[in-house]
Amino acid sequence: MSGATRVLVLNSGSSSVKYQLLDMRGHRRLATGLVERIGEEAPRLVHTPAGGRRRERRERIAGHEQALRLVAEELDADGLGLGSAELAGVGHRVVHGGRSFTEPTLVTDEVLAEIERLVPLAPLHNPANLTGIRTALALNPRLPQVAVFDTAFHATIPEHAARYAIDAATADAHLIRRYGFHGTSHAYVSRRAAALLGREVAEVNVIVLHLGNGASASAVAGGRCVETSMGLTPLEGLVMGTRSGDLDPAVVFHLARRGGLTVDEIDTLLNKRSGLLGLCGANDMREVLDRAERGEAAARLAFDVYIHRLRKYLGAYVAVLGRVDAVVFTAGVGENSAPVRAAAIEGLEVLGLAVDPGRNAARSGEPRLISPEYARVAVAVVPTDEELEIATQTYALVSPEQSA
Ligand SMILES: Nc1ncnc2c1ncn2[C@@H]1O[C@H](COP(=O)(O)OP(=O)(O)O)[C@@H](O)[C@H]1O
Ligand SMILES: CC(=O)OP(=O)(O)O
Ligand SMILES: [Mg+2]
Protein backbone atom coordinates (compact mmCIF):
# COMPACT_ATOMS: atom_id res chain seq x y z
CA MET A 1 0.00 0.00 0.00
CA SER A 2 1.16 3.55 -0.78
CA GLY A 3 1.67 6.44 1.62
CA ALA A 4 -2.00 7.35 1.46
CA THR A 5 -3.07 8.60 4.88
CA ARG A 6 -6.53 10.00 4.27
CA VAL A 7 -9.86 8.35 4.95
CA LEU A 8 -13.29 9.49 3.79
CA VAL A 9 -16.11 8.54 6.16
CA LEU A 10 -19.69 8.31 4.88
CA ASN A 11 -22.63 8.07 7.23
CA SER A 12 -25.66 7.59 4.99
CA GLY A 13 -28.96 7.89 6.85
CA SER A 14 -32.42 7.35 5.42
CA SER A 15 -32.64 10.91 4.07
CA SER A 16 -29.20 12.35 4.75
CA VAL A 17 -25.49 11.80 4.20
CA LYS A 18 -22.94 13.09 6.68
CA TYR A 19 -19.31 12.91 5.63
CA GLN A 20 -15.83 13.76 6.82
CA LEU A 21 -12.45 13.53 5.22
CA LEU A 22 -9.73 12.90 7.79
CA ASP A 23 -5.98 12.79 7.60
CA MET A 24 -5.05 9.96 9.93
CA ARG A 25 -1.67 11.54 10.69
CA GLY A 26 -2.72 13.61 13.67
CA HIS A 27 -6.44 12.95 13.03
CA ARG A 28 -6.87 16.21 11.16
CA ARG A 29 -10.27 16.98 9.59
CA LEU A 30 -9.76 18.18 6.01
CA ALA A 31 -13.43 18.60 5.11
CA THR A 32 -16.83 17.94 6.64
CA GLY A 33 -20.28 18.10 5.17
CA LEU A 34 -23.88 17.14 5.18
CA VAL A 35 -26.50 16.46 2.55
CA GLU A 36 -29.98 16.61 4.01
CA ARG A 37 -33.59 16.12 2.95
CA ILE A 38 -32.57 13.76 0.13
CA GLY A 39 -35.63 12.94 -1.95
CA GLU A 40 -37.69 15.47 0.02
CA GLU A 41 -38.64 19.15 -0.31
CA ALA A 42 -35.76 21.67 -0.32
CA PRO A 43 -32.70 19.38 -0.14
CA ARG A 44 -29.33 21.01 0.44
CA LEU A 45 -25.66 20.22 0.68
CA VAL A 46 -23.36 22.04 3.09
CA HIS A 47 -19.63 21.52 2.59
CA THR A 48 -16.89 22.95 4.79
CA PRO A 49 -13.23 22.50 3.86
CA ALA A 50 -10.80 22.91 6.78
CA GLY A 51 -9.70 26.53 6.96
CA GLY A 52 -11.95 27.39 4.01
CA ARG A 53 -15.29 28.97 3.41
CA ARG A 54 -18.49 26.99 3.98
CA ARG A 55 -20.30 26.29 0.71
CA GLU A 56 -23.94 25.51 0.28
CA ARG A 57 -25.82 24.00 -2.66
CA ARG A 58 -29.57 23.88 -3.00
CA GLU A 59 -30.82 21.77 -5.87
CA ARG A 60 -32.99 18.77 -6.53
CA ILE A 61 -31.35 15.70 -4.96
CA ALA A 62 -33.48 12.70 -5.85
CA GLY A 63 -31.57 9.94 -4.10
CA HIS A 64 -28.41 8.87 -2.30
CA GLU A 65 -26.44 8.15 -5.46
CA GLN A 66 -26.92 11.71 -6.67
CA ALA A 67 -26.13 13.03 -3.19
CA LEU A 68 -22.80 11.20 -3.17
CA ARG A 69 -21.91 12.38 -6.63
CA LEU A 70 -22.42 15.95 -5.43
CA VAL A 71 -20.26 15.26 -2.36
CA ALA A 72 -17.54 13.92 -4.67
CA GLU A 73 -17.79 17.09 -6.80
CA GLU A 74 -17.35 19.29 -3.74
CA LEU A 75 -14.34 17.27 -2.56
CA ASP A 76 -12.89 17.41 -6.11
CA ALA A 77 -13.21 21.19 -6.10
CA ASP A 78 -10.88 21.26 -3.08
CA GLY A 79 -8.47 18.76 -4.65
CA LEU A 80 -9.64 16.12 -2.17
CA GLY A 81 -11.70 13.92 -4.48
CA LEU A 82 -12.12 10.16 -4.58
CA GLY A 83 -9.42 9.93 -7.26
CA SER A 84 -6.80 11.47 -4.98
CA ALA A 85 -3.70 9.31 -4.48
CA GLU A 86 -3.62 10.31 -0.83
CA LEU A 87 -6.94 8.66 -0.10
CA ALA A 88 -6.37 5.27 1.58
CA GLY A 89 -9.99 4.20 1.64
CA VAL A 90 -13.60 4.97 2.41
CA GLY A 91 -15.23 3.97 5.69
CA HIS A 92 -18.98 3.47 5.63
CA ARG A 93 -21.30 3.38 8.59
CA VAL A 94 -23.53 0.37 7.94
CA VAL A 95 -26.42 0.20 10.36
CA HIS A 96 -27.34 -3.49 10.31
CA GLY A 97 -24.73 -6.22 10.24
CA GLY A 98 -27.03 -8.92 11.65
CA ARG A 99 -25.00 -11.74 13.16
CA SER A 100 -22.76 -11.91 10.11
CA PHE A 101 -20.50 -8.96 10.88
CA THR A 102 -18.91 -8.33 14.25
CA GLU A 103 -15.80 -6.53 12.98
CA PRO A 104 -15.07 -3.77 10.47
CA THR A 105 -15.05 -5.53 7.10
CA LEU A 106 -13.35 -4.88 3.77
CA VAL A 107 -16.12 -4.74 1.17
CA THR A 108 -16.23 -7.51 -1.44
CA ASP A 109 -19.08 -8.71 -3.66
CA GLU A 110 -19.95 -11.30 -0.99
CA VAL A 111 -20.06 -8.61 1.71
CA LEU A 112 -22.35 -6.46 -0.44
CA ALA A 113 -24.64 -9.43 -0.99
CA GLU A 114 -24.81 -10.11 2.76
CA ILE A 115 -25.61 -6.45 3.59
CA GLU A 116 -28.31 -6.67 0.92
CA ARG A 117 -29.71 -9.82 2.58
CA LEU A 118 -30.04 -7.85 5.82
CA VAL A 119 -32.14 -5.06 4.21
CA PRO A 120 -35.43 -6.45 5.63
CA LEU A 121 -34.00 -5.93 9.14
CA ALA A 122 -33.14 -2.26 8.47
CA PRO A 123 -35.25 -1.07 5.55
CA LEU A 124 -34.67 2.63 6.27
CA HIS A 125 -30.90 2.38 6.67
CA ASN A 126 -29.16 -0.51 4.87
CA PRO A 127 -30.31 0.46 1.34
CA ALA A 128 -28.81 3.94 1.81
CA ASN A 129 -25.59 2.39 3.16
CA LEU A 130 -25.40 0.05 0.14
CA THR A 131 -25.91 2.92 -2.28
CA GLY A 132 -23.11 4.77 -0.51
CA ILE A 133 -20.71 1.89 -1.00
CA ARG A 134 -21.73 1.21 -4.61
CA THR A 135 -21.49 4.87 -5.60
CA ALA A 136 -18.06 5.26 -4.00
CA LEU A 137 -16.93 2.12 -5.86
CA ALA A 138 -18.31 3.48 -9.14
CA LEU A 139 -16.40 6.74 -8.61
CA ASN A 140 -13.13 4.91 -7.93
CA PRO A 141 -13.19 1.09 -8.31
CA ARG A 142 -9.63 0.73 -6.98
CA LEU A 143 -10.34 2.41 -3.64
CA PRO A 144 -10.77 0.03 -0.66
CA GLN A 145 -14.20 0.33 0.96
CA VAL A 146 -14.71 -0.67 4.59
CA ALA A 147 -18.05 -1.32 6.27
CA VAL A 148 -18.24 -0.46 9.98
CA PHE A 149 -21.39 -1.85 11.56
CA ASP A 150 -23.59 -0.20 14.18
CA THR A 151 -24.47 -3.65 15.47
CA ALA A 152 -20.90 -4.97 15.87
CA PHE A 153 -20.16 -3.75 19.41
CA HIS A 154 -23.33 -5.44 20.66
CA ALA A 155 -22.33 -8.91 19.47
CA THR A 156 -21.10 -9.67 23.02
CA ILE A 157 -24.56 -9.27 24.57
CA PRO A 158 -25.32 -12.58 26.29
CA GLU A 159 -28.05 -14.78 24.90
CA HIS A 160 -30.43 -14.20 27.82
CA ALA A 161 -30.41 -10.47 27.04
CA ALA A 162 -30.46 -10.84 23.26
CA ARG A 163 -33.39 -13.26 23.01
CA TYR A 164 -37.00 -12.16 22.99
CA ALA A 165 -39.36 -14.52 24.81
CA ILE A 166 -41.20 -15.69 21.70
CA ASP A 167 -41.45 -19.05 19.95
CA ALA A 168 -37.84 -20.06 19.40
CA ALA A 169 -38.30 -21.63 15.97
CA THR A 170 -40.13 -18.53 14.69
CA ALA A 171 -37.41 -16.28 16.08
CA ASP A 172 -34.69 -18.37 14.41
CA ALA A 173 -36.50 -18.56 11.08
CA HIS A 174 -36.86 -14.78 10.91
CA LEU A 175 -33.54 -13.77 12.57
CA ILE A 176 -35.49 -12.12 15.40
CA ARG A 177 -33.30 -11.08 18.35
CA ARG A 178 -31.80 -7.99 19.92
CA TYR A 179 -28.98 -6.66 17.72
CA GLY A 180 -28.56 -3.14 19.10
CA PHE A 181 -27.33 -0.02 17.25
CA HIS A 182 -25.12 3.06 17.69
CA GLY A 183 -22.44 0.52 18.62
CA THR A 184 -19.59 2.60 17.21
CA SER A 185 -20.61 5.42 19.52
CA HIS A 186 -21.16 3.20 22.58
CA ALA A 187 -17.72 1.61 22.05
CA TYR A 188 -15.90 4.91 21.56
CA VAL A 189 -17.64 6.71 24.40
CA SER A 190 -17.20 3.88 26.92
CA ARG A 191 -13.46 3.81 26.15
CA ARG A 192 -13.15 7.60 26.48
CA ALA A 193 -15.08 7.45 29.76
CA ALA A 194 -12.60 4.94 31.20
CA ALA A 195 -9.75 7.25 30.16
CA LEU A 196 -11.52 10.18 31.82
CA LEU A 197 -11.68 8.18 35.05
CA GLY A 198 -8.00 7.29 34.65
CA ARG A 199 -8.85 3.58 34.64
CA GLU A 200 -8.36 0.64 32.29
CA VAL A 201 -11.40 -0.16 30.12
CA ALA A 202 -11.32 -3.75 31.41
CA GLU A 203 -11.81 -2.51 34.98
CA VAL A 204 -14.85 -0.29 34.61
CA ASN A 205 -18.60 -0.75 34.25
CA VAL A 206 -20.29 2.04 32.34
CA ILE A 207 -23.81 2.98 31.32
CA VAL A 208 -23.78 4.98 28.09
CA LEU A 209 -26.79 7.13 27.20
CA HIS A 210 -26.53 8.03 23.49
CA LEU A 211 -29.23 10.68 23.08
CA GLY A 212 -29.37 12.05 19.54
CA ASN A 213 -32.21 11.98 17.05
CA GLY A 214 -32.10 8.26 17.54
CA ALA A 215 -31.39 7.35 21.15
CA SER A 216 -30.13 4.25 22.89
CA ALA A 217 -28.68 3.14 26.20
CA SER A 218 -26.08 0.46 26.75
CA ALA A 219 -24.51 -1.33 29.68
CA VAL A 220 -20.80 -1.99 29.15
CA ALA A 221 -18.91 -4.26 31.56
CA GLY A 222 -15.13 -4.19 31.27
CA GLY A 223 -15.30 -2.96 27.68
CA ARG A 224 -17.85 -5.56 26.55
CA CYS A 225 -21.43 -4.59 25.85
CA VAL A 226 -23.85 -6.72 27.92
CA GLU A 227 -27.17 -5.00 27.25
CA THR A 228 -28.62 -2.31 25.00
CA SER A 229 -32.01 -0.71 24.51
CA MET A 230 -32.44 -0.97 20.73
CA GLY A 231 -33.46 -4.37 19.47
CA LEU A 232 -34.23 -6.06 16.17
CA THR A 233 -34.40 -2.56 14.69
CA PRO A 234 -33.57 0.95 15.97
CA LEU A 235 -37.20 1.39 17.09
CA GLU A 236 -37.07 -0.24 20.53
CA GLY A 237 -36.14 1.38 23.82
CA LEU A 238 -35.88 5.06 24.65
CA VAL A 239 -38.22 7.81 23.48
CA MET A 240 -36.57 9.46 20.45
CA GLY A 241 -37.10 12.49 18.23
CA THR A 242 -39.64 10.74 16.00
CA ARG A 243 -39.57 7.09 17.19
CA SER A 244 -41.80 5.71 19.94
CA GLY A 245 -39.30 3.38 21.57
CA ASP A 246 -40.92 0.71 23.77
CA LEU A 247 -44.61 0.02 23.58
CA ASP A 248 -46.94 -2.91 24.10
CA PRO A 249 -46.71 -4.88 20.82
CA ALA A 250 -50.50 -5.26 20.97
CA VAL A 251 -50.72 -1.56 20.03
CA VAL A 252 -49.76 -2.71 16.53
CA PHE A 253 -52.56 -5.31 16.35
CA HIS A 254 -55.02 -2.82 17.76
CA LEU A 255 -54.10 -0.18 15.18
CA ALA A 256 -54.40 -2.75 12.39
CA ARG A 257 -57.70 -4.25 13.55
CA ARG A 258 -59.48 -1.23 15.02
CA GLY A 259 -57.65 1.69 13.47
CA GLY A 260 -57.65 0.22 9.96
CA LEU A 261 -53.98 1.10 9.39
CA THR A 262 -51.79 -1.02 7.14
CA VAL A 263 -48.54 -2.47 8.43
CA ASP A 264 -46.57 0.11 6.43
CA GLU A 265 -48.65 2.94 7.86
CA ILE A 266 -48.03 1.69 11.40
CA ASP A 267 -44.31 1.39 10.63
CA THR A 268 -44.24 5.02 9.47
CA LEU A 269 -46.32 6.15 12.46
CA LEU A 270 -43.98 4.53 14.99
CA ASN A 271 -40.71 5.46 13.27
CA LYS A 272 -41.45 8.92 11.90
CA ARG A 273 -44.45 10.44 13.63
CA SER A 274 -44.00 9.30 17.23
CA GLY A 275 -41.53 10.06 20.01
CA LEU A 276 -41.23 13.73 20.96
CA LEU A 277 -42.75 14.75 17.62
CA GLY A 278 -45.82 12.59 18.14
CA LEU A 279 -46.30 13.75 21.71
CA CYS A 280 -45.97 17.50 21.17
CA GLY A 281 -45.31 18.34 17.51
CA ALA A 282 -41.57 19.05 17.88
CA ASN A 283 -38.75 16.52 17.53
CA ASP A 284 -35.88 18.82 18.48
CA MET A 285 -35.27 18.77 22.24
CA ARG A 286 -34.39 22.48 22.22
CA GLU A 287 -37.82 23.33 20.87
CA VAL A 288 -39.53 20.94 23.29
CA LEU A 289 -37.79 22.67 26.20
CA ASP A 290 -38.60 26.18 24.89
CA ARG A 291 -42.25 25.31 24.50
CA ALA A 292 -42.41 23.60 27.89
CA GLU A 293 -40.93 26.73 29.48
CA ARG A 294 -43.60 28.84 27.82
CA GLY A 295 -46.18 26.64 29.54
CA GLU A 296 -47.24 24.34 26.69
CA ALA A 297 -48.67 21.29 28.44
CA ALA A 298 -48.03 18.86 25.55
CA ALA A 299 -44.34 19.84 25.45
CA ARG A 300 -44.02 19.44 29.23
CA LEU A 301 -45.60 15.99 28.98
CA ALA A 302 -43.32 15.01 26.08
CA PHE A 303 -40.27 15.99 28.15
CA ASP A 304 -41.59 14.05 31.16
CA VAL A 305 -42.28 10.91 29.10
CA TYR A 306 -38.77 11.14 27.60
CA ILE A 307 -37.13 11.51 31.01
CA HIS A 308 -39.25 8.84 32.69
CA ARG A 309 -38.22 6.25 30.06
CA LEU A 310 -34.58 7.25 30.36
CA ARG A 311 -34.65 6.84 34.15
CA LYS A 312 -36.31 3.42 33.86
CA TYR A 313 -33.45 2.22 31.66
CA LEU A 314 -30.87 3.77 33.93
CA GLY A 315 -32.27 1.91 36.94
CA ALA A 316 -32.55 -1.32 34.96
CA TYR A 317 -28.94 -1.11 33.79
CA VAL A 318 -27.69 -0.51 37.33
CA ALA A 319 -29.37 -3.84 38.14
CA VAL A 320 -27.88 -5.51 35.03
CA LEU A 321 -24.33 -4.37 35.88
CA GLY A 322 -24.49 -4.68 39.66
CA ARG A 323 -21.63 -2.22 40.07
CA VAL A 324 -21.53 0.98 38.05
CA ASP A 325 -18.49 3.26 37.79
CA ALA A 326 -19.90 5.86 35.43
CA VAL A 327 -23.06 7.05 33.71
CA VAL A 328 -22.13 8.83 30.51
CA PHE A 329 -24.20 11.21 28.39
CA THR A 330 -23.41 11.58 24.70
CA ALA A 331 -24.77 12.67 21.25
CA GLY A 332 -26.71 15.87 20.42
CA VAL A 333 -29.08 15.90 23.39
CA GLY A 334 -26.78 14.15 25.85
CA GLU A 335 -23.85 16.47 25.13
CA ASN A 336 -25.79 19.72 24.98
CA SER A 337 -28.85 19.56 27.19
CA ALA A 338 -28.11 20.29 30.85
CA PRO A 339 -31.85 20.13 31.72
CA VAL A 340 -32.13 16.58 30.31
CA ARG A 341 -29.06 15.44 32.25
CA ALA A 342 -30.25 17.06 35.47
CA ALA A 343 -33.74 15.55 35.21
CA ALA A 344 -32.38 12.11 34.32
CA ILE A 345 -30.22 11.94 37.46
CA GLU A 346 -32.34 13.94 39.92
CA GLY A 347 -33.14 12.14 43.17
CA LEU A 348 -31.00 9.08 42.39
CA GLU A 349 -28.59 9.54 45.32
CA VAL A 350 -29.73 6.11 46.48
CA LEU A 351 -27.91 4.72 43.41
CA GLY A 352 -24.84 6.82 44.18
CA LEU A 353 -25.77 9.24 41.39
CA ALA A 354 -25.79 13.03 41.56
CA VAL A 355 -25.14 16.01 39.27
CA ASP A 356 -23.33 19.17 40.31
CA PRO A 357 -25.42 22.07 38.88
CA GLY A 358 -22.39 24.26 38.10
CA ARG A 359 -20.49 21.46 36.35
CA ASN A 360 -23.62 20.41 34.50
CA ALA A 361 -24.23 23.93 33.17
CA ALA A 362 -20.61 24.43 32.02
CA ARG A 363 -19.97 24.06 28.27
CA SER A 364 -17.03 22.24 26.76
CA GLY A 365 -16.26 20.07 23.77
CA GLU A 366 -14.08 17.82 25.92
CA PRO A 367 -15.00 14.79 28.05
CA ARG A 368 -15.80 15.98 31.57
CA LEU A 369 -17.32 15.01 34.89
CA ILE A 370 -20.57 16.61 35.99
CA SER A 371 -20.98 14.70 39.25
CA PRO A 372 -19.95 16.35 42.52
CA GLU A 373 -16.63 15.50 44.15
CA TYR A 374 -18.25 13.25 46.76
CA ALA A 375 -20.33 11.11 44.33
CA ARG A 376 -19.83 7.35 44.48
CA VAL A 377 -20.56 6.95 40.76
CA ALA A 378 -19.14 9.34 38.15
CA VAL A 379 -21.60 11.11 35.88
CA ALA A 380 -19.89 12.35 32.73
CA VAL A 381 -20.42 14.05 29.40
CA VAL A 382 -18.30 12.53 26.63
CA PRO A 383 -18.73 13.89 23.09
CA THR A 384 -19.12 11.02 20.68
CA ASP A 385 -17.17 10.87 17.43
CA GLU A 386 -18.51 8.09 15.28
CA GLU A 387 -16.70 9.46 12.23
CA LEU A 388 -13.28 9.39 13.89
CA GLU A 389 -13.94 5.88 15.19
CA ILE A 390 -15.03 4.68 11.72
CA ALA A 391 -11.98 6.35 10.15
CA THR A 392 -9.65 4.74 12.70
CA GLN A 393 -11.11 1.28 12.11
CA THR A 394 -11.03 1.79 8.33
CA TYR A 395 -7.42 2.94 8.36
CA ALA A 396 -6.39 -0.02 10.53
CA LEU A 397 -7.82 -2.37 7.89
CA VAL A 398 -6.59 -0.69 4.72
CA SER A 399 -3.24 0.50 6.02
CA PRO A 400 -2.32 -1.73 8.94
CA GLU A 401 1.42 -1.04 8.78
CA GLN A 402 0.86 2.73 9.03
CA SER A 403 -1.94 2.81 11.58
CA ALA A 404 -0.11 0.51 14.02
N1 LIG B 1 -28.51 22.55 23.15
C1 LIG B 1 -29.29 21.50 22.90
N2 LIG B 1 -30.28 21.18 23.75
C2 LIG B 1 -31.08 20.14 23.52
N3 LIG B 1 -30.99 19.34 22.46
C3 LIG B 1 -30.03 19.62 21.57
C4 LIG B 1 -29.14 20.69 21.73
N4 LIG B 1 -28.30 20.70 20.67
C5 LIG B 1 -28.66 19.65 19.87
N5 LIG B 1 -29.71 19.00 20.41
C6 LIG B 1 -30.43 17.84 19.88
O1 LIG B 1 -29.56 16.94 19.27
C7 LIG B 1 -30.27 16.28 18.21
C8 LIG B 1 -29.30 15.78 17.18
O2 LIG B 1 -28.38 14.91 17.79
P1 LIG B 1 -27.30 14.13 16.93
O3 LIG B 1 -26.52 13.28 17.84
O4 LIG B 1 -26.57 15.08 16.06
O5 LIG B 1 -28.30 13.25 16.09
P2 LIG B 1 -28.16 12.31 14.85
O6 LIG B 1 -26.70 11.96 14.72
O7 LIG B 1 -29.00 11.15 15.24
O8 LIG B 1 -28.68 13.09 13.70
C9 LIG B 1 -31.23 17.33 17.69
O9 LIG B 1 -32.41 16.73 17.28
C10 LIG B 1 -31.48 18.20 18.89
O10 LIG B 1 -32.73 17.84 19.45
C1 LIG C 1 -29.46 3.34 14.13
C2 LIG C 1 -29.97 4.70 14.42
O1 LIG C 1 -30.91 4.89 15.15
O2 LIG C 1 -29.29 5.70 13.87
P1 LIG C 1 -29.60 7.26 13.95
O3 LIG C 1 -29.60 7.65 15.38
O4 LIG C 1 -28.47 7.85 13.17
O5 LIG C 1 -30.94 7.44 13.29
MG1 LIG D 1 -25.90 10.23 15.38
UniProtKB/TrEMBL annotation:
Pathway: Metabolic intermediate biosynthesis; acetyl-CoA biosynthesis; acetyl-CoA from acetate: step 1/2. It comes from the Bacteria. Mg(2+) binds at residues 11, 386. The active site is at 150 (proton donor/acceptor). Its cofactor is Mg(2+); Mn(2+). GO terms for cellular component: cytoplasm. It is found in: Cytoplasm. Its EC number is 2.7.2.1. It is an enzyme of class 2 (transferase). Its main location: cytoplasm. The record marks 182, 243 as: Transition state stabilizer. Keywords: ATP-binding, Cytoplasm, Kinase, Magnesium, Metal-binding, Nucleotide-binding, Transferase. Catalyzes the formation of acetyl phosphate from acetate and ATP. Can also catalyze the reverse reaction. NCBIfam families: ackA. This is Acetate kinase. It comes from Streptomyces hoynatensis.
